[in-house]
């Protein structure tokens, strides 16, 4: 029997998806208030890089994107929290939102508001997929809805 050899890359998240997942993990850690964003980025890049991303990020993750999302989100925290808070349903407050969901929403809001090079549907889909990695109930739908509203505010001229 002839052996078939494939040069295809293994299934799994892309380099950018891996960077976004790691950025959400880093932002979650940052919300605990123990380390500055630059220190957390350094931890992920130098100490916590592994093959499977266990406790850190994959070696082949898009490191410039990771750094941009973490540091950009942290430096614009107040602006992004206001943007997301304005996109919550009337009966929701920022304080009511789970910390991991906050990290996902902040990262997504950062990319929607400050990364016009990335199509808005890509941003929303990527962060909804990250939510699916952690939640199997209503959180992914909640994140989709909120990020869609954020996109309307942040990219009113880019609705596609």
What does this structure look like?
With 160 residues, the chain is mainly α. The protein has one domain: N-utilizing Substance Protein B Homolog, Chain A, CATH 1.10.940.10. It is 61% helix and 2% strand. The protein is built from 7 helices and 2 strands; from the N terminus they run ααββααααα. It has a two-stranded parallel sheet with strand order 1-2. The longest helix has 17 residues, at 15-31. The chain is globular, with a radius of gyration of 16 Å. The N and C termini lie far apart (50 Å). Mean pLDDT is 85; it is low at 1-11.
Which of globular, elongated, flat, extended, rod-shaped describes the shape?
globular
Strand content: under 5%
**Which CATH class applies here?**
Mainly Alpha
What gap, in angstroms, lies between the N and C termini? 50 Å
SS class: mainly alpha
> What is the helix content?
55-70%
Question: Low-confidence spans: pLDDT under 50, at least 5 residues?
Answer: 1-11
Provide a brief overview of the structure.
This protein has 7 helices and 2 strands; from the N terminus they run ααββααααα. It has 160 residues and is mainly α.
Which features does this protein show?
7 helices; single chain; globular; about 160 residues; N-utilizing Substance Protein B Homolog, Chain A; disordered N terminus; mainly alpha
What topology emerges from the helices and strands here?
Layout: H1 15-31, H2 37-47, E1 49-50, E2 57-58, H3 63-75, H4 77-85, H5 99-114, H6 120-134, H7 139-154
Parallel strand pairs: 1-2
């Amino acid at each position: 029997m002839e052996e078939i050899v494939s040069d295809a890359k293994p299934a799994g998240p892309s380099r950018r998806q891996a960077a976004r997942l790691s950025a959400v993990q880093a932002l979650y850690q940052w919300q605990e208030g123990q380390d500055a964003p630059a220190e957390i980025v350094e931890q992920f890049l130098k100490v916590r890089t592994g093959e499977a991303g266990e406790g850190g990020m994959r070696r082949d993750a898009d490191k410039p994107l990771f750094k941009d999302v973490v540091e950009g989100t942290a430096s614009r925290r107040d602006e992004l929290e206001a943007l997301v808070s304005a996109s919550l349903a009337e009966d929701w407050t920022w304080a009511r939102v789970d910390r991991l969901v906050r990290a996902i929403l902040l990262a997504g809001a950062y990319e929607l508001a400050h990364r016009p090079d990335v199509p808005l549907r890509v941003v929303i889909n990527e962060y909804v997929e990250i939510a699916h990695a952690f939640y199997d109930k209503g959180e992914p739908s909640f994140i989709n809805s909120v990020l869609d509203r954020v996109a309307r505010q942040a990219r009113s001229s880019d609705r596609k």
